[in-house]
Amino acid sequence: MARTINKIGVFLFECIIKEKIELEIKQRAEAMIPKALNMAIQVLDQTSSLISLEVSEMLAMYLSILKKTGVNEGSTVTLQTIFQIIVKRIGYPSWYSFDQEVDANSSEEYFDRFRNALAILFINMAAIKQIQGDIVRYVSELLNNIKGNTGFSVHEKEVPLYLFYILGAAISDSEIKLDNWNKLLADPRWAILDQGMSLVLSTADIFSTIPLVFLGFEIMVRYAGYFEVHADLLESCFKLFTSEL
């Protein structure tokens, strides 16, 4: 069923983006898309990662179209629902063992593929200019929640940090270049970069497990240009992660 919904959705979106197609066909496709989207969102929120993964292609196509056309009131509500599901489901489940040698048909392998698909959806969504600010503010709130709070599990701490990490992929290449970091950090829209890096460098207890240490390294690599502006913090970075290994 999920695979069928995905194929129908992809076909409908192809109908509305094709230039050489009859107007009547395009209008019928546009009329059917809301129902197809609702069905796909229900599948995305299923407990089975394997089933939910089936509709990721269709939803990624939808977000790519919105990046070009912009959003309206109806699509804003849809985006909010998709975003809530992403945040809820992108975190590692409690049964995940972080075993690096998992079977190709294991639940962990299926979850890894699903998590990667959710990350792509998040990146595409965060690249939509009209809602980018809202997404950045929400991730900022999640980061604030784990700062100094010892009540969260490792899995719960990982989600805000991972979202902060993949948020970098939604920042345009022209902004993320090393020679633009002074300008980038001076822009109020990206205050989250100072916030996230400060959290990573000052909260050693967050990186209490090897998977989170690896995520911390990945954050440092993605935002390496940060140390072009804050070179004084580079030593703290090395001390933080070498002490946890």
3D structure, described in words:
The protein is mainly α and 245 residues long. It has two domains: 1-127; 129-245. The protein contains 14 helices and no strands. It has helices at 2-17, 23-44, 49-53, 56-69, 73-89, 107-126, 129-146, 154-167, 173-176, 181-186, 191-202, 210-222, 226-229, 234-242. Helix 2 (23-44) packs parallel to helix 5, helix 5 runs antiparallel to helix 6 and helix 7 (129-146) runs antiparallel to helix 8 (154-167). The protein is globular, with a radius of gyration of 20 Å. 27% of the residues are buried.
Please give the structural blueprint.
Layout: H1 2-17, H2 23-44, H3 49-53, H4 56-69, H5 73-89, H6 107-126, H7 129-146, H8 154-167, H9 173-176, H10 181-186, H11 191-202, H12 210-222, H13 226-229, H14 234-242
Helix pairs in contact: 1-2, 1-4, 2-5, 4-6, 5-6, 7-8, 7-11, 8-12
Structural class: mainly alpha
Taken from the alpha-carbon principal axes, the silhouette is globular
Cα end-to-end separation: 46 Å
> What percent of residues adopt helix (DSSP H or I)?
over 70%
Biggest beta sheet attributes? none
Poorly predicted regions are none
Mean pLDDT: 85
Strand content: under 5%
